[in-house]
């Protein structure tokens, strides 16, 4: 290991307590999407700007995606630049983390602490957003802080991006930045997205599946459950459709690709909703959502066409005229769609650089593979910019009693610094 990298790693170790305190302060601020009825990321972004206001970044920029549902009408993203040894002419590496977190879920399941009252216990920091994505956000900050403290300029300019709206599709985050500020991105950039990985940090994600979140809305006619002949139970129609769609998708799109984990496409019914609030109401409306993660070899357009065809078959099976109206009606709403881009080349510079850093710092060989999808990396791959997803995680994301392991945060910061230095 080089002498400079050794010094930076030691400095990161000295910053451990400060890193813990920073993560604790950030967890206290809920940054949940307006999609879930919350205010968004504004307060958390302001706290982060306050934390780094006296740090010697060469440039800090704030980009506000307009969203009238959010606090102050914006969804902020922050870019903080620390120039390399050749100043603005240095090659560049992005490290992207996200400000937003998912809702707490069932509060009764939070037995260690409340979601936004973080505690430090047994080498872990508990709280919503601690691992997803606070651990890596803080690690990236202090990878740079250590170099600042030592007066070291890295080989590569580091661009730390703290972005909104990752958890609900990136419409107000990375996607908005790329659409409205394409000048920010260069084809020769390297990109690390520390938002996925495994417990020992030996998995480098280079490919993602396509994503389709499909909401199916069924309309029937609400009636008293004791007189079903006078209406049409939308719940029964939705059950019929969901069962046959699930069966169709698994059978028709069932091939495997061992690059991915899991190796097959997944089609999971997740959310259901109907207005019946009593056991004796046959509902006239029903919604169900499928989360589909599809191998790149398959077309999302084909899947949508199959769903439309099946809907016609189900409508015909349940066809009924009620009060002059032909029912049921079945409509689709695509909540999110990301068509899988070409994978990052396993022999690309960012992959080789990360493998070298892990070899030097941990003495471990990292393997490459694919995941179910859903990170910032896909957006960079669409631009032809090589991106990898990597972090050392206990995979506590979205779970009650979510935690970040402090050792993972500190050790990952050293690897991030190495990517800029090597």
Automatic annotation (TrEMBL):
Transmembrane segments: none annotated. The keyword Zinc applies. Its cofactor is Zn(2+); Co(2+). Coiled coil: none annotated. Keywords: Aminotransferase, Cobalt, Hydrolase, Metal-binding, Transferase, Zinc. Residues 206-317 form the Peptidase M20 dimerisation domain. It comes from the Archaea. GO terms for molecular function: hydrolase activity; metal ion binding; transaminase activity. InterPro entries: ArgE/DapE, Bact_exopeptidase_dim_dom, Peptidase_M20, Peptidase_M20_dimer, Peptidase_M20A. PANTHER family: ACETYLORNITHINE DEACETYLASE, ARGE_DAPE-RELATED DEACYLASE. Belongs to the peptidase M20A family. NCBIfam families: DapE-ArgE, PRK13983.1. This is Diaminopimelate aminotransferase. The lineage of its organism: Archaea, Methanobacteriati, Methanobacteriota, Thermococci, Thermococcales.
């Amino acid at each position: 290991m080089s002498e400079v990298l050794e010094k930076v790693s030691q400095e990161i170790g000295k910053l451990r307590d400060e890193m813990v305190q920073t993560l604790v302060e950030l967890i206290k601020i809920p940054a949940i999407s307006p999609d879930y009825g919350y205010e968004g990321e504004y307060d958390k972004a302001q706290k982060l700007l306050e934390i780094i206001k006296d740090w010697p970044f060469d440039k800090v920029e704030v980009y506000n995606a307009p969203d009238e549902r959010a606090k102050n009408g914006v969804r902020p993203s922050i870019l903080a630049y620390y120039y390399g040894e050749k100043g603005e002419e240095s090659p560049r590496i992005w490290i992207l983390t996200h400000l937003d977190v998912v809702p707490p879920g069932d509060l009764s399941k939070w037995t260690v602490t409340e979601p936004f009252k973080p505690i430090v216990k047994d080498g872990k920091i508990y709280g919503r957003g601690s691992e997803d994505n606070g651990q890596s956000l803080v690690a990236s900050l202090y990878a740079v802080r250590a170099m600042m403290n030592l007066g070291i300029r890295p080989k590569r300019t580091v661009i730390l991006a703290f972005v909104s709206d990752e958890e609900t599709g990136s419409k107000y985050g990375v996607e908005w930045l790329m659409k409205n500020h394409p000048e920010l991105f260069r084809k020769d950039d390297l990109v690390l997205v520390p938002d996925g990985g495994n417990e020992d940090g030996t998995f480098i994600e280079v490919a993602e599946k396509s994503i389709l979140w499909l909401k199916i809305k069924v309309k029937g006619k609400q009636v008293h459950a004791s007189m079903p002949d006078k209406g049409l139970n939308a719940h029964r129609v939705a059950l019929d459709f969901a069962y046959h769609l699930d069966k169709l998708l698994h059978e028709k799109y069932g091939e495997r690709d061992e690059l991915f984990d899991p190796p097959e496409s997944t089609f999971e019914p997740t959310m259901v909703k109907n207005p019946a609030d009593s056991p004796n109401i046959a509902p006239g409306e029903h919604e169900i959502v499928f989360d589909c993660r599809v191998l790149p070899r398959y077309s999302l357009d084909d899947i949508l066409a199959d769903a439309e065809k099946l809907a016609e078959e189900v409508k015909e099976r349940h066809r009924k005229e009620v009060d002059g109206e032909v029912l049921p009606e079945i409509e689709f709403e695509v909540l999110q769609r990301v068509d899988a881009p070409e994978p990052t080349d396993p022999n690309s510079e960012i992959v080789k650089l990360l493998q070298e850093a892990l070899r030097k710092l941990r003495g471990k060989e990292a393997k490459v593979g694919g995941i179910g999808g859903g990170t910032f990396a896909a957006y960079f791959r669409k631009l032809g910019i090589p991106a990898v997803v990597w972090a050392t995680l206990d995979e506590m994301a979205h779970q009650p009693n979510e935690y970040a392991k402090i050792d993972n945060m500190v050790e990952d910061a050293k690897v991030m610094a190495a990517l800029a230095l090597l």
